[in-house]
Amino acid sequence: MAYLVGSLPTGYLVARAKGLDIRVVGSGNIGATNVFRTLGKPAGVTVLVVDGLKGFAACTWCTDLILDAFGIPLTGAPAERIVAGIAVVLGHNFTCWLRFKGGKGIATSAGVYFALAWQAALLALGSWVVVLVVARYVSLASVTAAVALPVAVWLTQDNAALRIVTLALGALAIYKHRANLQRLLRGTEHRLGAKKPAPEAAR
User: What is the SS3 assignment for 75-124?
Assistant: First the structure.
């Protein structure tokens, strides 16, 4: 159930509603950043919020619904919620509706960790904001948050499974940003506020 929630291709659907295939414009990614650059702030914010809610819902409402259906107590079920968190991020990153090609999982992961470890999520969000304001690269801010989150979880949570899962999800997020990292090294990555993306970003 969590995977199916995560697999909802929000960016693709929002763009399609405006007559555009988001996969063939900008960076080609279906995430909020590409939607924001291509379709503007309202569409980008909508995708960001919905993608975040997918992660939060999977770890709270969806998990509670499944546990209740099987008669399992709804309180104190960290293992089930962690599994749901993994599934919803994988659903977003590898959606079955678009031939298993999805987003990069940053907003959805944020939703997951606001449900599982809100203190760590706030610390990671803080690192994202600082890097974005200073460097004005969304991708660099996202990679920084992917590194900061496992550290924050290690410092704030005494749950070995959650620590290991966070390391894995952080590594996956960095892997999904590999093309962005290559463009950053070459100086061709799109900077927030620039009038138009660098030519390579459209390929």
Answer: CCCHHHHHHHHHHHHHHHHCCHHHCCCCCCCHHHHHHHHHHHCHHHHHHH
Comparing CA positions, the residue from 88, 157, 65 lying closest to residue 116 is: 157
For 34-61, the pLDDT digits (tens) are: 999 999 999 999 999 999 999 999 999 9
Burial class (CB in 10 A: 0-12, 13-18, 19+), 71: exposed
Find out whether 77 and 67 touch, Cβ atoms under 8 Å: yes
| Token output for 9 | 């291709």
pLDDT at 32 > cutoff 70: yes
Per DSSP, the chain holds a count of helices (H) and strands (E) of 11, 0
CA distances to 5, 74, 106, 171 from 60, in Å: 12, 10, 18, 24
Residue 187 CA from chain centroid, whole number:
24
Cβ partners under 8 Å of residue 122, min gap 6: none
Distance CA 112, CA 124 (A): 13
pTM of the predicted model as reported, rounded to 2 decimal places: 0.91
